Amino acid sequence: MAKKLLAGAAAVVGLSIAMLGGVTAGASAAPAAAPISAAVTCTGAGCDNKDPYDSGCGASRVNAGQKATVKGTFILYYSSTCKTNWIEVPSYAGGSTRTDGKLELAAWDKGRGKFLRFLASSSAGRHYGNMVYSPGDSCAVGLGDWNGGSTWEVAIESSGC
């Protein structure tokens, strides 16, 4: 209940500031704040294909790599608590030419051969995929696709690759 009240209050404050013209988004704007995180609810491979913020893992995220594109900057995050990776785009420009009309986000742990796909809305805004367990120096890759061709538009490798 407290989380919903805090989220509602933050939305009202944000809307009020925006209506007053006090905040404008631009290319140099900081990424949107992460959703309010829950307590950590998974460990190890049990975090595979889970939401990074609902699981509480997003609270310990660090940037493991990023790539700027015409659609926005895609970031590969690593959770130091959960030992997981996921891909996120804080300000997606919107649009997709895929046959399903979606933005595909994927996380891949090469060491375990675990590849997880997530289909997000192609609307403009913040989007992220689910996590893949990829501990320590494992090679993790974040991928993004909005064209549906034979190659990924975004491929970000962790330092373990």
Structure, described:
With 161 residues, the chain is mainly beta. It has one domain (2-20, 35-157). The chain has one helix and nine strands; from the N terminus they run αβββββββββ. It has one helix spanning 2-19, and strands at 61-69, 72-79, 84-92, 103-109, 114-120, 125-128, 132-133, 140-145, 154-157. The strands form two sheets. Strands 1, 2, 3, 6 and 7 form a five-stranded antiparallel beta sheet that branches. Strand 4 (103-109) and strand 5 (114-120) form a beta hairpin. The protein is globular. The N and C termini lie far apart (42 Å). Keywords: Signal. Pfam families: DUF2690. It comes from Lentzea kristufekii. InterPro entries: DUF2690 (IPR021224).
Summarize the structure.
Helix content is 11%, strand content 35%. It has one domain.
Number of strands: 9
Shape: globular
Radius of gyration: 16 Å
Q: Note poorly predicted spans.
A: 1-32
Beta-strand residue fraction: 25-35%
Order of helices and strands: HEEEEEEEEE
**Average pLDDT figure:** 82
Protein name: DUF2690 domain-containing protein
Signal peptide: 1-29
Pfam family, one: DUF2690
Organism: Lentzea kristufekii
